[in-house]
Amino acid sequence: MTEPEISTLREQLLAHAARLRADVQTHREQLIEPAAATGNTFIAGAEGATADADDEREVALLRRSQLELDDVNAALQRLESGRFGECERCGEAIALARLQALPQARLCLACQSAAEHHPRNA
Ligand SMILES: [Zn+2]
Q: 83 alpha carbon to ligand 1 midpoint, in Å?
């Protein structure tokens, strides 16, 4: 991997991390103040069913954003330590095309598809 390729990936990761942090922040705010966030005061006064469903959705989105942010931060750490682009499972280099599509990828394509087919062995 060349220096310009690495710095492009670093910029992608930093931009992605910033967007995910904003997402996490938004989902947190909506969980704290659901009525204020929706701008719909009658939801808060309803039997709670709507608000609960919304909360569950927000929790799921929050969790997903946080997991992705962890992946992005781990990728940035690997960039700093010079181990970026190594598969965490087999240690082989992850294809550049895959990293350009998904800079936070932890696994090479072969290990990723093995993990998806056998989640317990991941
Ligand atoms: Zn691998």
A: 14
CA of 90 to the centre of ligand 1 (A): 4
| Predicted model pTM | 0.76
- Cα 106 to ligand 1 centre (Å): 9
Q: How far is the CA of 26 from the centre of ligand 1 (A)?
A: 35
Q: What is the mean pLDDT of residues 32-44?
A: 56
**Burial of 68: CB neighbours in 10 Å, binned 0-12, 13-18, 19+:** middle
CB 45 within 8 A of CB 79: no
Domains detected in the chain: 3-121 (1.20.120.910)
Output the pLDDT for position 34.
Answer: 53
Q: Is the pLDDT of residue 40 over 60?
A: no
